[in-house]
Amino acid sequence: MNKYAKNYYDHLSNLINSIKFVNKDGKNIDFHDGIGEVSRLILSQANSGNKLMFIGNGASAAISSHMSTDFWKTCGIRAIAFNDSSLLTCLGNDFGYEYIFEKSVDMFADPGDILVAISSSGRSENVLRGVASAKSKECSVVTLSGFKDDNPLHSEGDFNFHVLAQDYGLVEVIHHSICHCILNAINNYKGGHR
Q: Model confidence over 57-75: pLDDT tens digits?
């Protein structure tokens, strides 16, 4: 088991060092610069009265809930995750599961808001529809995806983080760390302590 643990963290470290960050024009940008760009976007839009919205399924939904709470609690930035069980079951039942995020974003998004779309595979139809809805509402979009780098989500955002791993757990751990890094960068800039 010790050897497994060492290999796991060595592999995780290698994956972190190979995270790709691509802007809406498809230009590769240094990952650390990408964190800075997204942090500045969030600060700028929040200072203009806009909010953050998070979407994702399964573990990505858990990341969405965690991070939306942390952004408003720690940084004072309005944030929401669209994954309340009544909301999901209502919209899934009435419209179909593929529309749950599209309908939520369409109802609550305002121009200038930011959607953070998280999907390990980058192929979740409901997430992709949520992104399309955000774009139609003139929102900025930040994506976090994994698996193959030609997944559809990887090129849909204004800013796109990609983890080239085929394992859900590894992708999810890194996605969560990216979100925390952005939050901590903003909190540090604002002079907060965490």
A: 999 999 999 999 999 999 9
142-162 confidence digits (pLDDT tens): 999 999 989 999 999 999 999
CA dihedral 123, 102, 60, 62 (to 10 degrees): -160
Residue appearing with tokens 């998280």 = 118
Distance CA 59, CA 29 (A): 27
Predicted TM-score (pTM) of this structure: 0.96
Would you list the domain boundaries of the chain?
2-189
Task: Select from 165, 184, 36, 60 the least CA-distant residue to 116.
Answer: 60
Q: Output the CA torsion 113→123→144→43 (10° steps).
A: 0
Amino acid at 64: S
What fold, for 2-189? Rossmann fold (3.40.50)
Q: What is the dihedral of CA 191, 80, 121, 150, to 10 degrees?
A: -70
CB atoms within 10 A of CB 25: 6
